[in-house]
Amino acid sequence: MNTPTVPTSxxxxxxxxxxxxxxxxxxxxxxxxAAEKPVAPERTGGDDKEVIILDPFEVVGSRxxxxxxxxxxxxxxxxxxxxxxxxxxxxxxxxxxxxxxSGQAITTTDAGSNFAPGVSTMNLRGLGNNQTLVxxxxxxxxxxxxxxxxxxxxxxxxxxxxxxxxxSVEILKDGGSAIYGSxxxxxxxxxxxxxxxxxxQVKVEVGDYSGTGGxxxxxxxxxxxxxxxxxxxxxxxxxxxxxxxxxxxxWARFADKSDVAAKTNPRYAGSGWAEVSVPxxxxxxxxxxxxxxxxxxxxxxxxxxxxxxGWFDSRSxxxxxxxxxxxxxxxxxxxxxxxxxxxxxxxxxxxxxxFQETNGFIPREERYSFFSTFRHxxxxxxxxxxxxxxxxxxxxxxxxATPVDLENEYLLSDNDGSARLTGAGNMIIPDFxxxxxxxxxxxxxxxxxxxxxxxxxxxxxxxxxxxxGLGGDVxxxxxxTWESAALYSKNRVKENAVVVTDDRMQEALLGLTxxxxxxxxxxxxxPQDQREYFNWFGPNDAAFTxxxxxxxxxxxxxEYYSFDFSTGGTLCTLPGGEMGxxxxxxxxxxxxxxxxxxxxxxxxxVSGDSGASxxxxxxxxSVYGELNxxxxxxxxxxxxxxxxxxxxxxxxxxxxxxxxxxxxxxxWLVLRGSYSKSFKAPDLAYLYTSRQTTFTGxxxxxxxxxxxxxxxxxxxxxxxxxxxxxxxxxxxxxVFEPKGCLKNLQLSVDAFRYEQKNVLAQPSTYMGYxxxxxxxxxPGSPYYGxxxxxxxxxxxxxxxxxxxxxxxxxxxxGLTQGLDFGLSYQWTAGALGDILLGATATxxxxxxxxxxxxxxxxxxxxxxATASIGWRRGDWEANxxxxxxxxxxxxxxxxxxxxxxxxxxxxxYVEQPDEFYVEYDIEPQFTLNTSVSYKGFSKLTVTAGVNxxxxxxxxxxxxxxxxxxxxxNDSSPAFWYVSLTREF
Length: 984
Description:
The chain is mainly β. It has 13 helices and 50 strands. The strands form 9 sheets. It has a 22-stranded antiparallel barrel. A 5-stranded mixed sheet has the order 4-7-8-5-6.
């Protein structure tokens, strides 16, 4: 293979850019366009200078191999050493610390409320957890099979990567669909796995989250060997994280956040006040006037203090003892659990339940990973390679005991009008129960099933991946290579949940029969006076627990098959250098299935997920090409395009182009820019999910019946008519590298802009639930018929809402733009060693969705930043890594401020555009990680470190049960660790 020669004197910064800084931050700064360090260069030269001969290599964002690691596109490279120096316990934590990761990611700390428990993601630019394409060695990897976030979104689980086998991580920060296809909207993350290693290595690491019992241990064995033209590498990794309960973390232990909310400057606020027209009230002249008016409405009962008004008390109304709503319009409970509830002892109200006392915080997780790679060169013109990996993650998620809402349980089976057991539309406590002193069937009330203890879900995620390919030089064409591979990748998720079914809960309330063995069973033939009844207001014996609980095993699977071929090389030589061309084709098959049980399908799980099994598939044929044109020595153009043919219904068959330019006027200045069109094909769950049922969780005003719906049922199904989400991306950047005494300094500024359209959204989110109910009643509306109502009462035009169909559609638009800043500097201080400094920051100018600005709101900080300092001297190494997550303004919304009581005639009320809510401040968060390493022992390296060194409390977010905003702030306590690495 012919390779270029590069003199070592003058202009050699690019050769060391990828390894200049061994720290995550510094590498991220000065490798805005850097790539991996060229491996094993050949050296020649005469008396005057040494010459390095380099093989061309490929950088993410381009399929054309090159020697100059400064590409047209902005690329960040993070080496394995950088990841170690940052000190985070997982690869996901490291990537989420990057300043250009924003919005809300999915983390294990919110596993109890997540559709995909135990998953960790990153969210580039805040565009969405499923808007970034993840590659392993340049090829796609199967995402997590169970839909996450909203129950439909397919995301990549960073925990499925065998992180001990990672050589480096490349991140393309502008749109990559022209090169890599769908999903590469916010960018591309390419995990380059280790390949060239001779010898053995054993690593053992232990650590603990301070004061929580969250002990973590990890063991890794690496072995690599090469003989002649054959090389292989195998990495085995095992990790075990003990669980942490919320009660063991001081900022998460209570659900009532009123005491901490006072520290966040809470205040009442309102929006849309200029449009509000209240009968008999003059138009408001200011927001303050509007807020003052609403705060003083007698029916609202507000004061000037949102904390005193209870806005931050997140304790559940589903407490113990439970409460019921009687026909006199009042709610009744008991001051303490009782085995003899009487009408005389009943008190009005409910018993708030602090679920954080038993909720989990970080789940127990055990992970096994294996990665192997093999390569054999038959000749310079032909080589064989393979990658085989497997990861199993076993996660045990714990949440507080099951809550029961009589009014929302035991719903009509399959929504087809057939009631179960009682004939009632929802669960009831019958009037004949000895624990019902109210003399009537009770059909509204709430309780916590403390008898069944915590809800536990055992999750097993298996991710096998296999790649087999051939490559080599193109015979007869100088500097041309080709490669072709077949890939199979799969993720299968099994969840085994302990649940309580609606049927058994209703049977327990109707009375059970005790057998000779002491067990309880349902027998409707047993006379009512001989049954044993579940006590809603007091204790129940263990036999009720044994009767109520069941196992509900579900599974999800996603499979990728692909075959690809690519070739590239030099077309000709221009005045600026060699013109490169790359083109290729890919055929990919995707299969998805979500296996639900009959309990899910019939909505027969108390406070649980419901929906039918679903499956779907697609195939994609792609043809792509890329041209690199060095117009003159200082100017380089990138022209790329990709044509993809999807089997999905009515997908447009368009070419997604990308145009980039790099201008290098001097050896200390680089100017770059690009424009590209990206797209995101709808995840298969959005297209093929059979049915999923959820509830609003907050009251909804029905403008047609002029009544409040406590919690509205929402049924969502897949929509096979969805179109891809489309994004136009602009990028412009400058890299400044002075010479002389500042020759090791690098400064960079990047501007980015993403314009999105056809973004998937639910109509209710787009317009609000009340407006949806109103619009769906009009025959000309696209949502007509999507609200299913009960039979109207006598004299009424509309019945009560049973449920709404709220399917996703291409409804929304978005705009995200801002700036990235970077700085790095390497200082060689002689006998004092080497000092490396780095800093990055990302500033968001606009984050808009459908014209609404979200910069500075609860999930979108205007500023994020990182900074680092590293020191090297002999066998010693020390690192300090800091992360700044910007401050924001949170809100607690309570829907429309005006109730029907606010109007002289309730018929005047339809849906006002106003919102009355509480604002509060979420302070910036700064965390500091430190580590020290010594490798002076014989082939042994000892490292000790502490993450969140000061064990500082994260910024308080009283709206969140964890005490801070999960996926935005770092909620972890201080984590100390010690690792030993031995080379053989």
